[in-house]
Amino acid sequence: MKLPAKDYPFAQEFITDAEGHIRKVVIDIADYHKLIAALEDEGLYRAMVEARAEIPLSLAEARKEME
Asked: For residue 21, what are the CA distances in angstroms to 1, 13, 15?
């Protein structure tokens, strides 16, 4: 799937192949950190949704599970 350059909002530069297809993008380090934080937040959210229906363990049960 080829996206036009305007569809890469964080891109500062594009690295293309011989045919002119975008293969890599260069982004600002601050934007990189924002993207990583967003991915981590999404992962945490998904884990919370998945665990929502689980029954909490007591401290003793949790310790036993960790052994």
From this structure: 10, 13, 8
